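Notes on consecutive records. When two proteins share a document, each keeps its own sequence and its own token line. Never mix them. Below: protein one.
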Amino acid sequence: MSDVIANIDPITVWKHFSDLNAVPRPSKKEERVIAFMMDFGRSLGLETLKDTVGNIVIRKPASPGMEKRKTVVLQAHLDMVHQKNNATAFDFEAQGIQMFLDGDWVRAKGTTLGADNGLGVAAIMGILASDKIKHPALEALFTIDEETGMTGAKGLANDVLTGSILLNLDTEEDDTLCVGCAGGVDVTARGRYTPTAADGEVQGLSILINGLQGGHSGMDIHKGLGNANLLLGRILLACREVAPVSLAAMDGGSLRNAIPREAQALLVFPSDKWDEVLGAMEGEKSAVLEEYREKEPGLRITAQAAARPEKTMDSGTTEEFLHCLYSLFNGVYAMSSEFPSLVESSNNVARVQVGEGSIEIGSLARSSRESAKADLVRKLKASFIPAGYQVTTGGDYPGWLPDISSPILAVVSKRYNELFGEAPQVLAGHGGLECGILKNHYPEIDMVSFGPTILGAHSPDERASVSSTRKFWTLLQDVLTHIPQED
């Protein structure tokens, strides 16, 4: 089906996207896609370089007659989130993404599609490869590791780029021009416990939550979607309230920037408490399914008897852990005062692992306001520290403060209006664009972000609109012909 995708209009974008998606490109393992992009730039005879962290810069001279226009940086990231359904057999490090056309949508078979930010990369490739599209001097910046730390943008030297305008192509709604974004920080809590033997007449119970939509922990956090880690914690706590259950293991979620879709746990409790525990589990299950009936129609909660494990967490420590997990803030923390419909601050309880004496809970806290981000970290610590867990933070990156007076925003807004007969939405986003970091490196650069409509990013339901990609491609080409002259 990838041949079908490569022939969708605009062919130049979808062909490059198909070529890109044939190359495995997980975050932090971008060696193959870096080599792919280096070969691409050199094959065009363009100046192509790799910096010390792995970012790629490809320079293309201005089209005839455009030499006096301002130099433009076209920016997108090379890596993609790797998520798949449990039932899907797929090796992200060896296989290319398997795509298919579903009406107006391009999808992948049981995995993430990589349209975030592969369509931005493909569009830039199309501009670089074309000898017909008019444009000023271009610097194409392809960053690495955007999805798991933004280390590519962070590691970019402040003397690599010469452009005075930057077009970031990582916004996921085609009627939106993004002029700001949230910053973020990873918050990790770790604890230890002494595994004890599961003595006496005990029963094991395995509980699995799956079928949730998941999604982007920034762009989708306001939707109130189910978080598998917290829903499972809720059910486990209901069981703990009727019997001295012990937790043998728990494993939920995956990436920090993905809302957890699946989680599972193994409980142990006295055999004579089977009816009480199962009744509590079924009662809480019914309540959860009813509450999420509209938002999460695919939600499944299943339980089955399991073999008794050799070691488990003791009942008291289990209760302490479950109360801590239950108390964690998750979801929208505050709305923006500048943009009332925009989430200012949020948290995603992304990863929970318990077993063999170790407890680890990972969250991603976001905010466009640094003081609010610090306050949210403090709130999470207020749950972790009383439980005796050690808390560390990492991967901190700044937000991008909106500039409504931006000259390039005015240009893109006008061209959008002229092309499509309506004004675009001008918003700040809650996702973690690299623009804030790049602005730190290049304070004088003028930025705006736009892109095609992509739904379900960071989940196997990710899909990209064909008609929207056509619209995005039209806008990008047009904007490049209207870049103002150098002062």
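Protein two starts on the next line and is unrelated to protein one.
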Amino acid sequence: MTHADSPIRVLLVDDHPLLRDGVRMRLHVTQHIRVIGEAGNAHEAAQLTERMRPDIVLTDIRMPDANGIQMARAFRDRFPATRVLILSMHHDAEYVQRAIACGVCGYVLKDGPSQQLVEAVDVVHRGGRYFSPELAVSGEDMPPEVTRASHQLTPREAAVLSLLAQGHSNKEIAHALGASVRTVETHRLHLRRKLRIDGQAALMKYAVAYADLQGGA
């Protein structure tokens, strides 16, 4: 079946109507991609996804009631046939790693060329993953070796790693563990020192790989 016979159905999620207008026009210049619905927040996005079952949800990270990464985590179980693609202005590697941990299928920068967005939609629809070339962390990056020093982790440090791998923020981890945000930040610092990891993005990659290892153990 050709693109013309079966266009890629996209739900666009962003709290700025003007930006949605621009993205819709960028996608509609192709013959094989159609924006079938638009939402201004995560709640609306869930309702529309339930009703319309889009192929792809294209969402910003920042929204009034949640963020795109949290939404991806929720959609992963609720709408397994719908793939989530992030469209963001944030280049920060930790955002990208959190997004990967939560099951997004791609991450495209808003200031990139329009062809990147079209290419991302195509790749993600085919079952692949797409990350803007300008990002410091590529979706194809291999995780660091997870066996080093992992046997030295305390139960609380292991719990922090597990929650990091699920894409939770420091505030969410603090709530889950019944601790303060400052305590979680201290745990993250100790983990970096103990594991000899440089930077928060590298810690996120380690957390995802560690969780995979534990799941397969």
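For the record: Confidence is low (pLDDT under 50) at residues 137-148.
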